[in-house]
Amino acid sequence: MQLMEKQNILIVGSGGREHALAWKCLQSPWVQRIYCAPGNPGMGRMVETVDIAVNDIAGLVQFAKDHDIHLTVVGPEAPLLKGIVDAFAEAGLQAYGPSAQAARLEGSKSEAKAFMQRWSIPTAGYRVCYTMAEAETFIAEQGAPIVVKVDGLAGGKGVVVAMTEAEAVAAAKNFLVPGSCIILEDYMQGEEVSLLAFVDGETVIPMEFAQDHKPVFEGDTGPNTGGMGAYSPVPQFGSHVLKEAMERIVKPTAAGMVAEGHPFRGVLYTGLMITDQGPKVVEYNVRFGDPEAQALLPRLKTDLIEILWASITGQLDQMDVQWDKRAAAAVVAASGGYPEAYDKGLPIAGDILTQRDSSMVFHAGTAAKNDGFVTNGGRVLAVTGLGDSLSEALSAAYRRMSDIDFAGMHYRRDIGRRAMKQASRSA
Fold first, then answer.
1. 3-state secondary structure of 339
2. Which domains does the chain have, with CATH numbers?
3. What would the pLDDT profile of 340-357 be if each residue is shown by its tens digit?
4. pTM for this predicted structure
């Protein structure tokens, strides 16, 4: 796609995903200026940060009008569900992402499950429960293991894979609040992988596979987090798995949304379980994943601004999206205690600004203080390494991470372990 003039871009969000989006957009020759609202101090060295909250939609619309913003890119899910794309459209402005109604694919797991059932999209069997009596009866009938999920947004932490009935009942009690529901799902045996795609109606262009690591500790132990690391590509799943997932899941999802009057435009993230019966949907997200974005965007060769504009203008089917053949691995450094209570304001040592050819640092929970940085969140930053192989990419990421430190800092040292195990077996 050929643009006619340089663009002023507004990125909504403040985390590592948005830092990676800003970094990638800056590589486009079509960018005049980038603003991030609210942004973070790490990306503030690259772009202009704006003190507007992600859910202040009226404020964001007004800022876009006042600053001649050509394109707004929405990072997090909450403003999408709140209708930011609809509000921008009503104001005659362009924002990339799904409408509030289309964003319900992520905003309500019960609605997403019903959608999959209507369109025969493979997923786990389930029951929606509104009371503890319903939940306890179903858990007793199904037994364990069983999966317990919050219906709405939970920042990646609203899922418990219960290995006993007692664990399932405890999770249900924790998740079920008055006026809400929970989802109880059959336990699926297999390996999870993330498939993200650029979507505009029924036009779907898949990205390459990425694999996230949700549990906080090595060996996939401990509570779920927003994600402790990701890598791409995922060598244990070849093109045949991608083709099957596209034909049985992603394309039918896009077509179903069009048929139901809510065409999807934006990044559709499909969390997949690769089972003996083929790929099945674990969950939908309606935006770039975090930390998947920190592993995928460094591998994207095609101009991201051109892709986004092609989608908005109905020309996505004309795009040839290309990927760097190198592997990327993103490793998250978290605060001590995360995903539970943790301290903030701890000084961060090391170079967390320089973006190198083989490694880059994306800020998520940092704050500026005394010409340096301190911790300001659970997931503090992500280090992404690039290499000709996954092993080289991981080495680059961990080598860079070894030069960074703050009190209580912890990170998983087994990112990519499944792929590396397979590689060692195949050697």
1. coil
2. 8-101 (3.40.50.20), 125-186 (3.30.1490.20), 191-426 (3.30.470.20)
3. 999 999 999 999 999 998
4. 0.95
